[in-house]
Amino acid sequence: MVKRADERQDTVGESINLLTKMIEHHEQRLDGVHAEQSNADERIAALADAQIRTEGALKELSAIQSNADERIAALADAQIRTEASQSHADERIAALADAHIKTEEALAKLTEKLHRLADTVERHIKEGH
């Protein structure tokens, strides 16, 4: 009976040793999990900070884009006004060219009449009138 009690005590001792090793192994694994969790938390925090910075940069880019859109619209309006002014100037130049042609035609007719008058005056002088 003593032998059996000793065997049981040995078995209980071995079980306690096995349980102790299992607990130590479990604690080591938990320490690893905690370390990994801490590392994951740090990485998540870094990602959140990066996301916040990205959102800020996107807002800034949106404002810049809006400003650029306004400036492009102003340039387009200025271009339209310039083209309208150029078209009006082209019309005025065409009108001036027409007026110049008419003036030259009138001048040519007047010169013709002046030459005829001069011829008539010279003929009258030769004829003694």
Features:
1 helix; single chain; rod-shaped; 0% strand; 129 residues
Describe this structure in words.
It is a single chain. The chain has 129 residues and is mostly helical. Helix content is 98%, strand content 0%. The protein has one helix and no strands. The radius of gyration is 54 Å and the shape is rod-shaped. It starts with a helix and ends with a helix. The model has no long low-confidence stretch (mean pLDDT 90).
Termini, distance in Å?
182 Å
- Secondary-structure element series: H
Rg computed from alpha carbons, rounded to a whole number of angstroms: 54 Å
Quaternary organisation: single chain
Number of strands: 0
Which segments are poorly predicted (pLDDT under 50) over 5 or more consecutive residues? none
The residue-averaged pLDDT reads 90
Largest sheet descriptor: none
Q: Strand percentage, roughly?
A: under 5%
Shape: rod-shaped
Total DSSP helices: 1
Into which percent range does the helicity of residues fall?
A: over 70%
Report the structural category: mainly alpha
